[in-house]
Amino acid sequence: MRYSNPETGLNLAVVNFVLQCAAMRSLDALSMIDLQPEVLRDFIEMTGEDIARLSMVKDPLFRIEINRDTWDRVKPSVLQVAADRQLRNDLIVAGAPRAMIKRWWPMRHKEFALLRRMLGTHSVGRAKAATEQEEHAVWHAWSEIGAANNFSRVRPADYLELHQRTNIGLEVSWALTNRWASEGRFDNRVRQGGPQTESR
After folding, report:
1. pLDDT at position 65
2. What was the pLDDT predicted at 194?
3. For 101-130, what is each residue's pLDDT tens digit?
4. Both 107 and 45 in a single domain?
5. Residue 76 included in any domain
6. Same domain for 110 and 145?
Protein backbone atom coordinates (compact mmCIF):
# COMPACT_ATOMS: atom_id res chain seq x y z
CA MET A 1 0.00 0.00 0.00
CA ARG A 2 2.15 2.80 -1.33
CA TYR A 3 -0.13 5.58 -0.14
CA SER A 4 -1.19 4.06 3.16
CA ASN A 5 -2.21 6.74 5.66
CA PRO A 6 -5.04 7.30 8.16
CA GLU A 7 -7.42 8.40 5.39
CA THR A 8 -6.94 5.22 3.35
CA GLY A 9 -7.36 3.16 6.51
CA LEU A 10 -10.66 4.89 7.24
CA ASN A 11 -11.84 4.42 3.64
CA LEU A 12 -11.15 0.68 3.76
CA ALA A 13 -12.67 0.25 7.22
CA VAL A 14 -15.94 1.92 6.22
CA VAL A 15 -16.18 0.09 2.90
CA ASN A 16 -15.61 -3.23 4.66
CA PHE A 17 -18.31 -2.25 7.15
CA VAL A 18 -20.70 -1.47 4.31
CA LEU A 19 -19.97 -4.79 2.60
CA GLN A 20 -20.49 -6.70 5.85
CA CYS A 21 -23.80 -4.93 6.48
CA ALA A 22 -24.93 -5.63 2.92
CA ALA A 23 -24.04 -9.31 3.21
CA MET A 24 -25.95 -9.60 6.50
CA ARG A 25 -28.89 -7.50 5.25
CA SER A 26 -28.32 -5.08 8.14
CA LEU A 27 -30.45 -2.27 6.77
CA ASP A 28 -30.52 -0.36 10.07
CA ALA A 29 -26.72 -0.22 10.12
CA LEU A 30 -26.57 0.78 6.47
CA SER A 31 -29.07 3.56 7.08
CA MET A 32 -26.54 5.23 9.37
CA ILE A 33 -24.34 5.88 6.33
CA ASP A 34 -25.73 8.33 3.81
CA LEU A 35 -25.05 6.29 0.66
CA GLN A 36 -26.92 6.73 -2.58
CA PRO A 37 -28.23 3.40 -3.97
CA GLU A 38 -25.90 3.55 -6.98
CA VAL A 39 -22.84 4.03 -4.73
CA LEU A 40 -23.91 1.12 -2.57
CA ARG A 41 -24.18 -1.04 -5.71
CA ASP A 42 -20.69 0.02 -6.75
CA PHE A 43 -19.31 -1.11 -3.40
CA ILE A 44 -21.15 -4.44 -3.49
CA GLU A 45 -19.83 -5.19 -6.99
CA MET A 46 -16.20 -4.43 -6.06
CA THR A 47 -13.66 -7.20 -6.60
CA GLY A 48 -10.53 -7.85 -4.58
CA GLU A 49 -8.52 -5.89 -7.15
CA ASP A 50 -10.93 -2.96 -6.82
CA ILE A 51 -10.50 -2.93 -3.04
CA ALA A 52 -6.72 -3.07 -3.46
CA ARG A 53 -6.87 0.00 -5.69
CA LEU A 54 -9.13 1.69 -3.14
CA SER A 55 -6.34 1.26 -0.60
CA MET A 56 -4.26 3.70 -2.67
CA VAL A 57 -6.82 6.51 -2.56
CA LYS A 58 -5.31 9.16 -0.31
CA ASP A 59 -8.35 11.41 -0.01
CA PRO A 60 -11.11 10.68 2.53
CA LEU A 61 -14.29 9.20 1.04
CA PHE A 62 -16.42 9.57 4.17
CA ARG A 63 -17.18 12.16 6.81
CA ILE A 64 -17.60 10.64 10.28
CA GLU A 65 -19.72 12.37 12.90
CA ILE A 66 -20.12 11.32 16.51
CA ASN A 67 -23.54 10.90 18.09
CA ARG A 68 -23.10 13.05 21.17
CA ASP A 69 -26.28 11.80 22.85
CA THR A 70 -25.08 8.19 22.63
CA TRP A 71 -21.53 9.09 23.67
CA ASP A 72 -22.71 11.06 26.71
CA ARG A 73 -24.83 8.07 27.72
CA VAL A 74 -22.14 5.38 27.39
CA LYS A 75 -19.06 7.44 28.33
CA PRO A 76 -19.23 6.88 32.12
CA SER A 77 -19.31 3.09 31.81
CA VAL A 78 -16.69 3.03 29.03
CA LEU A 79 -14.23 5.19 30.95
CA GLN A 80 -14.91 3.30 34.18
CA VAL A 81 -13.77 0.07 32.52
CA ALA A 82 -10.49 1.76 31.59
CA ALA A 83 -10.07 3.10 35.13
CA ASP A 84 -10.76 -0.35 36.59
CA ARG A 85 -8.19 -1.91 34.28
CA GLN A 86 -5.57 0.63 35.33
CA LEU A 87 -6.35 0.01 39.01
CA ARG A 88 -5.98 -3.75 38.49
CA ASN A 89 -2.63 -3.27 36.77
CA ASP A 90 -1.39 -0.93 39.51
CA LEU A 91 -2.29 -3.54 42.13
CA ILE A 92 -0.39 -6.25 40.28
CA VAL A 93 2.68 -4.02 40.01
CA ALA A 94 2.37 -3.39 43.76
CA GLY A 95 2.66 -7.14 44.39
CA ALA A 96 -0.99 -8.17 44.59
CA PRO A 97 -1.31 -11.96 44.62
CA ARG A 98 -3.68 -13.74 42.28
CA ALA A 99 -6.16 -14.33 45.11
CA MET A 100 -6.58 -10.57 45.55
CA ILE A 101 -6.95 -9.87 41.82
CA LYS A 102 -9.32 -12.80 41.40
CA ARG A 103 -11.62 -11.38 44.09
CA TRP A 104 -12.56 -8.44 41.84
CA TRP A 105 -11.32 -9.50 38.38
CA PRO A 106 -11.87 -13.25 37.91
CA MET A 107 -9.14 -14.74 35.74
CA ARG A 108 -7.33 -18.01 35.26
CA HIS A 109 -3.79 -18.60 36.46
CA LYS A 110 -2.37 -18.41 32.91
CA GLU A 111 -4.07 -15.07 32.31
CA PHE A 112 -2.73 -13.67 35.56
CA ALA A 113 0.80 -14.92 34.86
CA LEU A 114 0.75 -13.42 31.35
CA LEU A 115 -0.56 -10.10 32.62
CA ARG A 116 2.12 -10.00 35.30
CA ARG A 117 4.85 -10.60 32.72
CA MET A 118 3.42 -7.90 30.46
CA LEU A 119 3.56 -5.46 33.37
CA GLY A 120 7.17 -6.39 34.09
CA THR A 121 6.55 -8.05 37.46
CA HIS A 122 7.47 -11.52 38.59
CA SER A 123 6.06 -14.03 40.99
CA VAL A 124 7.39 -13.70 44.52
CA GLY A 125 6.38 -17.26 45.37
CA ARG A 126 4.94 -17.87 48.80
CA ALA A 127 4.39 -14.59 50.64
CA LYS A 128 7.09 -14.00 53.21
CA ALA A 129 6.03 -13.63 56.82
CA ALA A 130 5.61 -10.02 57.84
CA THR A 131 8.07 -8.59 60.33
CA GLU A 132 6.69 -7.05 63.51
CA GLN A 133 7.49 -3.60 62.11
CA GLU A 134 5.64 -4.35 58.86
CA GLU A 135 2.66 -5.74 60.75
CA HIS A 136 2.34 -2.61 62.86
CA ALA A 137 2.71 -0.38 59.80
CA VAL A 138 0.01 -2.24 57.89
CA TRP A 139 -2.25 -2.34 60.93
CA HIS A 140 -1.99 1.40 61.51
CA ALA A 141 -2.66 2.29 57.86
CA TRP A 142 -5.38 -0.32 57.41
CA SER A 143 -7.22 0.84 60.50
CA GLU A 144 -7.47 4.30 58.98
CA ILE A 145 -8.36 3.09 55.47
CA GLY A 146 -10.61 0.09 55.67
CA ALA A 147 -10.99 -1.55 59.05
CA ALA A 148 -13.99 0.61 59.94
CA ASN A 149 -15.93 -1.06 57.11
CA ASN A 150 -17.19 -4.59 56.83
CA PHE A 151 -14.33 -6.52 55.21
CA SER A 152 -16.53 -7.62 52.28
CA ARG A 153 -17.05 -3.97 51.31
CA VAL A 154 -13.37 -3.07 51.14
CA ARG A 155 -12.49 -1.74 47.67
CA PRO A 156 -9.48 -2.57 45.51
CA ALA A 157 -8.49 1.11 45.70
CA ASP A 158 -8.17 0.71 49.49
CA TYR A 159 -5.42 -1.85 48.98
CA LEU A 160 -3.60 0.38 46.54
CA GLU A 161 -3.74 3.19 49.10
CA LEU A 162 -2.46 0.78 51.73
CA HIS A 163 0.57 -0.01 49.56
CA GLN A 164 1.19 3.66 48.84
CA ARG A 165 1.12 4.50 52.56
CA THR A 166 3.33 1.65 53.73
CA ASN A 167 5.43 0.72 50.67
CA ILE A 168 4.93 -2.89 51.72
CA GLY A 169 4.23 -5.47 49.01
CA LEU A 170 0.55 -6.36 48.71
CA GLU A 171 1.31 -10.06 48.96
CA VAL A 172 2.23 -9.36 52.61
CA SER A 173 -0.59 -6.90 53.28
CA TRP A 174 -3.19 -9.19 51.70
CA ALA A 175 -2.16 -12.08 53.93
CA LEU A 176 -2.26 -9.88 57.04
CA THR A 177 -5.64 -8.27 56.39
CA ASN A 178 -7.24 -11.61 55.53
CA ARG A 179 -5.85 -13.14 58.69
CA TRP A 180 -7.18 -10.30 60.81
CA ALA A 181 -10.58 -10.54 59.12
CA SER A 182 -10.79 -14.30 59.78
CA GLU A 183 -9.93 -13.66 63.43
CA GLY A 184 -12.69 -11.07 63.71
CA ARG A 185 -10.27 -8.40 64.80
CA PHE A 186 -11.77 -5.51 62.85
CA ASP A 187 -13.65 -3.90 65.72
CA ASN A 188 -13.06 -0.64 67.54
CA ARG A 189 -11.50 -2.20 70.61
CA VAL A 190 -8.87 -4.17 68.69
CA ARG A 191 -8.10 -1.34 66.27
CA GLN A 192 -7.31 0.95 69.15
CA GLY A 193 -5.10 -1.66 70.77
CA GLY A 194 -3.15 -2.47 67.63
CA PRO A 195 -2.15 -5.90 66.33
CA GLN A 196 -1.58 -8.56 68.91
CA THR A 197 1.81 -10.12 68.31
CA GLU A 198 3.12 -13.17 70.02
CA SER A 199 6.00 -12.66 72.42
CA ARG A 200 9.27 -14.01 71.09
Report:
1. 83
2. 56
3. 999 999 999 999 999 999 988 766 666 788
4. no
5. no
6. yes
Query: What distance in Å separates the CA atoms of residue 38 and residue 162, rounded to the nearest whole number?
Result: 63
Q: State the total domains in the chain.
A: 2
| Angle between helices 6-23 and 37-44 in degrees, nearest 10 | 90
Q: Is pTM, for the whole model, over 0.90?
A: no
Answer yes or no: do 158 and 193 share one domain: yes
Residue 113 is part of which domain span? 81-200
Q: CA-to-CA distance for 42 and 40, rounded, in angstroms?
A: 5
Q: Verify that 87 and 50 share a domain, yes or no.
A: no
The alpha carbon dihedral of 141, 144, 145, 151 has a sign of: positive
pLDDT tens digits, one per residue of 133-154: 999 999 999 888 865 565 557 8
- What are the start-end ranges of the H helices in 24-169? 27-31, 37-44, 48-54, 68-93, 98-104, 109-118, 132-145, 156-166
